[in-house]
Amino acid sequence: MRASDQAFEALRGEILEWTLRPGTILTEVEQADRLKLSRTPIREAFARLTAEGLLVPLPGRGVVVSDLSRETIIELFELRVVLESEAARLVALRRDPAVFLALRDEFLVAPALLEHDDDRREYYALVERLDAAMDAALQSRFLLAAIRQLRPHLTRARRLARDDSARLIAAAGEHMTIVEAIVDGDSELAANATSIHLKKSLKNILNAVDTTTETVTTSR
Amino acid sequence: MRASDQAFEALRGEILEWTLRPGTILTEVEQADRLKLSRTPIREAFARLTAEGLLVPLPGRGVVVSDLSRETIIELFELRVVLESEAARLVALRRDPAVFLALRDEFLVAPALLEHDDDRREYYALVERLDAAMDAALQSRFLLAAIRQLRPHLTRARRLARDDSARLIAAAGEHMTIVEAIVDGDSELAANATSIHLKKSLKNILNAVDTTTETVTTSR
DNA sequence: GAAAGGCGCTCTGTATACATAGGTGCGATA
DNA sequence: TATCGCACCTATGTATACAGAGCGCCTTTC
Description:
Chains A, B: InterPro entries: GntR_C, TF_FadR/GntR_C, Tscrpt_reg_HTH_GntR, WH-like_DNA-bd_sf, WH_DNA-bd_sf. Chains A, B: Keywords: DNA-binding, Transcription, Transcription regulation. 2 copies of one chain form a homodimer. Chain A is mainly alpha-helical. In chain A, 71% of the residues lie in helices and 5% in strands. Chain A has helices at residues 3-16, 28-34, 39-52, 70-94, 97-108, 110-113, 120-138, 141-158, 165-184, 187-210; strands at residues 25-26, 55-58, 62-65. A 3-stranded antiparallel sheet of chain A has the order 1-3-2. In chain A, a hairpin with a 3-residue loop joins β2 and β3 (62-65). Chain B binds a DNA duplex through α3.
């Protein structure tokens, strides 16, 4: 594995899991020293993370871990709803039914997984498989690229949400509706169900943000 | 100006104006030599152009100027319609009316500009001002970023189209409809008019592609 | 004559040294 | 005491040297 990939993955991971918090200032030399690499791969990692929007250049002082304010999260979902609804519409038209039938069967037993907190990881893994299947069925490189661009920010935002069992069970139902629409090839239903799911998802995150005493944004 | 910016702008310009054609293989050393720079800034330029999708890594052999096939153009517009329709919808809700009233007045006299081929540049400049005004009114960083991501590819695609006067005059009319909808704050009309405009635009480009004997794609 | 293996070239990947700019802090002067 | 200016320090920006890997061509052998 290339050193620049190591640096990228390491920094990205730390940003996504809030180890490196918004507002933290990073410099090339400091990170090169910490990660035991030279400045060159760090530089490349900074460039990639800046392109993704996780870092913002701070002229003369380095880069800063980007902000994730309430307003930013709203803007993020504003676009996410548009992109993923459209994606669901296209997937419903282009999918291989067998793949999504299998996923439907898995989602049928999902509520059982959510009874015990221990099995949550399995549920999250299932959702990831659904995402992967949709990516594969999408067949539109540009739309996929646009969705991928949002994912790191969504990962960061999701960390803010307190996923209680009630919300997760509801989410499982919403996913089921989407998967069934895709199986049926009902593109409009798939799009609408996705839109509804994401808006509820946003609401859940914003609820968590609003009831958290801790200030999330540290710089702007 | 930084050397890496120079390299980026130079290569980007050449790709967009088809001086560097799809399928052309570039290596760091070769370009460093040609542009009289060291490998470092070239490397950075390659990375940025790869992130934009104008270059594709060719493991062990350098990078290659990305393909722009008929299919790619269709996928490009598939996403563009979604993004720019949504943008028009939001702009109609968030715009400063004065700005777009002024633009409307300019578009009123646009057909006159298109009578002489010499004045086309003025018309193109007007369209650019409209885009800039919409970007500013949009107030959604993520949506704007997604649209910006498409622009270089659109610039390249547009080079393929043969814009005859008839098409340009029609386009001016379509733009006028969009601007008026924005002035009126009619978000649905703005979105629909944008969708129609872009679909006609795509048709025009595809017509040109289909009637061109020259093969556009050189690699895949 | 064809196929396989080895040698060599050229590519990227990384480290490091040097240049340069901008910002901060301290000191001097008004 | 406050403000202006200079110097130093630390940051990025750039060049370059070196290492490692992959591909192609050439040679040799069957």
